[in-house]
Structure formats: C-alpha cells, structure tokens
Design brief:
By secondary structure, the chain is α/β, with parallel strands linked by helices. Helix content is 37%, strand content 15%. β1, α1 and β2 form a beta-alpha-beta unit. One of its GO terms (cellular component) is cytosol.
Length: 199
C-alpha cells in the first residue's frame, strides 16, 4: 500500500508530526508512507485569476496517486486547526481528490483526551458532499500526554499504544483493500462535476 500522511498543523514542533514519522518507520515493511506538510499551502480563498495554486495541485495529485490517506490532527478549541480546514477547503473546491479515498484519522494532544473532539470534527468535515472520503469506521487512535510519548529516537514508548496502533493500521490496510475492490465494481451513473468559482 502507498499512503499519504498529512501533518495537520503548521507548528514547527508537533507530536502529531512525530506520530506520523513513527508510523512511517514502524510500518515500513507493510506500506510506503509519505509525509506531507500543509503549512506551506496558501490560505484558502478564490484566486483573482481563478487558477489553482501550484502547491494545491501538488497536494491533489499526491492524494489521487495514493491508495489511502492518513491525517494526524491536533485539537484547538475542540476543533481541527485552521490550516487543516483551509487545506481541505482547497481540495473540496478544486480537485475533490478525497472523494472515495480511504482515510484513517489519528491524533495526539498534550492533554489526556488525545484530540478526540478534533477527530470527531474532522470526520464530520470529511463526510461532507464535496469531500466524501471513505473514513474507516469505528476507529480512533487517540494519543494523550503526547509530550512524553516519544523517546530521543522518535519511538513511541507507550506499549499499549503501540499495540493499539498496530491493530488499527492493519485494519486500515484491509479497509483500503476492500474499499478499492468495492469501488472498482461500482457503477458510475453520473458524470464528474465540473468546478467553477461561480458555483
């Protein structure tokens, strides 16, 4: 499997980035995981020339070429960060590259809840008609107290969380495979929607 792992923050120091880096290394024998930083994307707005920014096209192409997407989100005021919402708006209003794409949500926070409210918020957004991602059901990976969760080598040091992550990731690989086969047999009854800024 080839996955795109989106770092859902613009912070230079982030335990969500560390979590994805750990997953990239820990699951290297099971999948190819590419990390993607959204902090360099422009803030979502209608361009004066109606042209999609190059960085947005890059993200869209990476999503389209991946078998699935992993999104790590922190929690800001019970919600996802503005930078992540902005990135998703770009996808929603342009390529709609997340449509039918298998998605796994993970998250880390300094508190005990491990970004649970932000993950619920992100699920709601990804389920919207213009994104329509295939979110893996009944799965949450919540890493609380994340400031002390990694050693100097970037390894996750909570054994129970490593076991939980192992189980969720293997389920996601299976979910990706099943979803891909299901969509291959899906009858396409409607033509693709053509995007314009005036809609």
């Amino acid at each position: 499997m080839k996955y795109l792992a989106i770092v859902g923050t613009n912070s230079d120091v982030s335990t969500n980035r560390m979590l994805l880096q750990f997953m990239q290394k820990h699951f290297s024998s099971e999948a190819e995981i590419e990390l993607y930083e959204i902090k360099d994307l422009p803030v979502f707005m209608e361009p004066e020339d109606s042209q999609v920014p190059e960085k947005v096209e890059e993200l869209s192409n990476k999503i389209l070429n991946a078998d699935g997407v992993i999104i790590a989100t922190p929690e800001y005021d019970h919600a996802i960060p503005a930078v992540l919402k902005s990135a998703l708006e770009w996808i929603s209003y342009t390529s709609q590259a997340l449509t039918d794409k298998p998605v796994l949500i993970v998250g880390a926070s300094h508190g005990t809840l491990g970004s649970s409210r932000a993950q619920a918020h992100l699920r709601q957004i990804l389920d919207s008609p213009e994104l329509a991602a295939r979110i893996m059901p009944s799965s949450e990976f919540l890493l609380g107290k994340s400031q002390g969760a990694f050693d100097g080598g970037g390894n996750l040091i909570y054994p129970d969380k490593v076991s939980e992550l192992d189980e969720i990731f293997r389920e996601f690989v299976l979910f990706t495979d099943i979803t891909t086969k299901l969509l291959a047999e899906k009858v396409q009854n409607k033509s693709a929607k053509k995007f314009t800024w005036q809609e």
